[in-house]
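Q: Please design a sequence for this.
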């Protein structure tokens, strides 16, 4: 390498982070520019009336931590 040449250095650093990988298609636009996704939440025992494996769909705001092509790390 001689003076004046351009060098590129790519450094990958792994940082342990709690979160979930989602496909980009799972995100929906939330209020005030935030992002959300839909999750399944198990109903309380009093709401089940004897049924098993009954869930309700809930919307949750998420924080985007990282993007990689067609998937996103959120928490």
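A: Design:
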């Amino acid at each position: 390498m001689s003076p004046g040449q351009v060098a590129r250095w790519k450094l990958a650093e792994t940082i342990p982070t709690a979160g979930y990988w989602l496909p980009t298609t799972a995100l929906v636009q939330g209020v005030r520019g935030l992002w959300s996704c839909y999750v399944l939440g198990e109903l309380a025992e009093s709401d089940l009336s004897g049924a098993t494996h009954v869930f309700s769909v809930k919307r949750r705001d998420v924080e985007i931590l990282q993007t990689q092509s067609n998937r996103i790390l959120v928490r």
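Q: Thanks. Anything notable?
A: The chain has one domain: 20-74. The two ends are 43 Å apart (CA to CA).
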